[in-house]
Amino acid sequence: MNAYNHNFKLMIIGQIISLFGNAILRFSLSLYVLKVSGSASIF
Fold first, then answer.
1. What SS3 class is residue 18?
2. Residues 6+ apart with CB under 8 A from 40
3. What is the pTM for the complete model shown?
């Protein structure tokens, strides 16, 4: 049972890290598109 809890915690931590990574990627891509196109109307 202890190994199950450990694996579950690792999975949750991995999902949280992935969520933050996705948010950072979307933000940075938004800045890139703004820089390249000069327009924020795409968003």
1. helix
2. 34
3. 0.70
Cβ-contact 40, 34 below 8 angstroms: yes
**DSSP state at residue 1:** -
Query: Rounded to a whole number, what is the largest CA-CA distance in the chain?
Result: 55
Taking the CA atoms of 31, 33, 35 and 37 in sequence, report the sign of the dihedral they define: negative
The three-state secondary structure class of 5 is: helix
pLDDT in tens, 24-40: 999 999 899 889 988 87
Euclidean distance between CA atoms 27 and 21, whole angstroms: 10
